[in-house]
Amino acid sequence: MAAFTFFDTESAWDEDLHEAYRRIDPKVQPHHRLGSKRIFAAAALDLTLTDNGQISCDAVHSWTEHDHGDEEAVVSGLFDHLRARPDRVAVGYGSIAADVPLLLAAAMQHGIVLPSQFIERRSFSRSALHPHTDVGLVLKGGGKTWHHMAEVALRLGLPVDLLDTKARVDFPRTADQWQEVRAHVELDAALVGIVMLAWLRTQGQACLQPTTMMIAVLDWIRRNGHMTASMTDKIATSCSTLIGLVEESYLSAA
Description:
Blueprint: E1 2-13, H1 15-24, E2 37-49, E3 55-64, H2 65-68, H3 71-83, E4 89-92, H4 99-110, E5 132-134, H5 135-140, H6 149-156, H7 175-202, H8 210-224, H9 229-253
Parallel strand pairs: 1-4, 4-5
Antiparallel strand pairs: 1-2, 2-3
């Protein structure tokens, strides 16, 4: 049995930090330096996978500045969640390059102790599971090319309509926009899980059929996540499309 927490964060540019740094280096272009961003939302999906391929989506949690106050509260919420689950592997996508540097910067500023999954270790392998595993880096391996998570999700067969808003998330200004962000970041955590489970199948570590696995995870997040009405409809439509693919494969086999 393997236990995971799939996580994702959303961040925005802090113009005050950016302008302060431009006084030091005027050549810096707007919205260029990662250190000038702050996290405003995060989500975590707990999932357990048995040796015979049974999936149990255990819980989903999310934190936003709108609901919890500020970046410190958002990061603390995610860290407390992971700290309470030290046996779970924390899995992100592109997290070593994007999420973790921002989480670490926030922890340093606010004096937050990292959960055990993010404590730096001397040894690291791109091919093995670690307390914090970046599945994007695992897929990259020793090559130079990073796959965007949306590219991988499309290759797995997820409908493009489910992914067409992934590339850009603006800082919310209204209560409705904050709810959309919460739904977005929870769905992203589920997508991280889908990619990770598909990779585990290739390694012989999970007895999963990829399409039915995606249906199970998406339908669970639709029913149990903090989804907007439009996101619920989009996920339901995507599940119906995937179910149709499964039915076609069975008919072809017959």
